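Sharing a chain and its predicted structure for anyone who wants a worked example. Both blocks are below, sequence first, C-alpha cells second.
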Amino acid sequence: MLERIKELLSLVFGSRFELSGSGRTYVNLPLWVVVLVGVASLHLTVITALLIVAFGMRVRIAKA
C-alpha cells in the first residue's frame, strides 16, 4: 500500500500535463498544478473536460 502511494506521488510531482490540438500546444504545466486546480474547482474541471472532448484536443501526461 505504501509503495502504491509513493508511485502516485511520484507521478503527480514528476510529470507534466500537455494539452494540444491541431498542431499547437495550448497547455504545458506540471501535473501537480493541474491536480491542485482540479481539486479547488470541480465545476471548472468538468467544463474543461467537456471542452477538450468537444474540440477534439489531445491530453498527454509525460514524465519529466
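Comments welcome. DSSP finds three helices and three strands in the chain.
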